[in-house]
Amino acid sequence: MIYGIGIDLIKIRRMKEAVDKWGKKFLDKIFTEDEIAYCYEKKEPYLSLAVRFAAKEALIKAIGSEVFVPLTDIEIVNNKNGRPSISAKGKLEKFFKSRSIKNCHLSLSHEKEFGIAHVVLEK
Question: Which residues of the chain have pLDDT under 50?
Fold first, then answer.
């Protein structure tokens, strides 16, 4: 049974501008250390950062306004085949348990200047 869905679209340039302006302080508010390290291993780190931010926003839309979740409690990880998924930590993990959310499906994509993420939560 579907609990919620969310989608988010982002301009990749906006992520670069935010990082250029606010630097590590901005990154640490949004991303985990592992996410930052993963993205900066890429040729285009802002693209990876942007779609991960979009994934976090899509997840927040999927859970609605029931609970405030710090963005660092949402970690975007990739399995050994490169498939992205969401690792729930802290408040998000507790929320998933309290609502019996068993699966969190994530799809990421990008094209030129935009990144997009789609999340489906399943009970």
Answer: none
To the query of whether residue 118 is one of the catalytic residues in this protein, the response is no
Instruction: Select which of 16, 91, 94, 110 is catalytic.
Output: 110
* Sheet of 103-111, strand order: 2-11, 114-122, 103-111
Strand partners, 104: 121
DSSP letters spanning 24-55? HHHHHHHS-HHHHHHHHTSSSHHHHHHHHHHH
Catalytic residue flag (residue 110): yes
Which residue among 16, 61, 91, 94 is the active-site one? 61
Query: Is the pTM value of this prediction over 0.70?
Result: yes
**The predicted structure's pLDDT at residue 61:** 97
The pairing of strands 114-122 and 84-88 is unpaired
CA distance 43 to 109: 16
The answer to whether the CB of 115 falls within 8 A of the CB of 10 is yes
